[in-house]
Amino acid sequence: MMDDNMFGNTMWAGHWLWMLVIAIVAVIPAWRICQRTGYPGWMGILILVPVANLFLLYFIAFSEWPAETRGDKNG
To answer: Which residues cross the membrane (predicted)?
Structure first.
């Protein structure tokens, strides 16, 4: 009776599309923040990793920014 599910054991394709949209919405601002603080933009991808995202936020919040030490104001 449980096997009558329309989708079976596969994931719905819309789920993957939705997850991609959420990932893009989260990564783009994190990428820009990393760039403006003077760190490499690829560090923004860490926002998608469950525990690494907290480390990233604390690292950016409490470390000295390379952009500040160089005197860059707009990244």
So the answer is: 12-31, 43-61
